[in-house]
Each structure stands twice: as C-alpha cells, then as structure tokens.
Design brief:
Layout (H helix, E strand, L loop, with lengths): L2 H18 L8 E7 L4 E7 L4 E7 L6 H6 L3 H18 L5 E4 L7 H12 L5
C-alpha cells in the first residue's frame, strides 16, 4: 500500500470517528467546516432532508472587503465564524453540532468555532 493511500485511509477514519459519536443527535443541524491551505468554508446542513441551509466561505464576494483587511488566516476564520452565526440567527437556527470534519480542534478551526459561539450559535 502506498503512503498516499495510507494517509487517505487514516484521514477518512479520523473524519468518520467524529461523525459516529454525533450520529445520535440527528434532530440537530450540523455545522460542517472544511478548509484548504488559504481558505475556510462553513455550512449548516440538515441531514434529515439532505439540504444545506446556510453557507459561508472566505471567498464570498460579500466578505471581500473584510478579508482584505484581515492580516492572517486565523482572522479570516473568525470573520467566517461570525458571519455563519449571523446568518444562522437570521434563519432562526440556535443549536447545531460541530462537525470539524477530521481536522484537529486548534488554530483556524477553533477560531472559527469560537467566533460562531460568540455570535449566538450553541454547540
């Protein structure tokens, strides 16, 4: 087995392990985070109906002026977290469970989660 295949299998196990523990909370919506080397995306998903209710990305045109002012990737993550919380509040979403998608809860992921909590989301 090649190293790339081993790494992919390991990341899939880590990703699924975080989802299995939250599977019993199917009545709640899911806040999914995904990131790349430069950007971060967050969406609130209704798993029962299979629909995305709210999504925010650091590439959104509405956030472009804020993103140019941000000095680093952690500040960009805070802006995305704040915006997802505001959009959720507009759609009357109060409680979600946080799906970190296998990423460690440090750095950008933690900054985004803390900003979403400050803007009113509970998870």
């Amino acid at each position: 087995m090649s190293k790339l295949t081993k790494d992919n299998a390991r990341s899939q196990r880590r990703r699924n392990r975080s989802k299995v523990s939250q599977n019993n909370l199917s009545d709640r919506l899911r806040l999914v985070v995904s990131r790349s080397l430069k950007n971060i995306q967050a969406q609130i998903v209704d798993d029962v109906n299979g629909k995305t209710l709210v999504s925010v990305s650091s590439l959104d045109k509405s956030l472009k002026s804020d993103m140019t002012k941000a000095k680093g990737k952690i500040e960009r993550s805070k802006i995305v977290g704040k915006k997802i919380g505001e959009k959720a509040k507009k759609n009357k979403i109060k409680e979600v469970w946080f799906d970190r998608n296998g990423y460690p809860y440090t750095g950008r992921i933690k900054a985004m989660a803390d900003a979403a909590r400050k803007s009113g989301l509970k998870f």
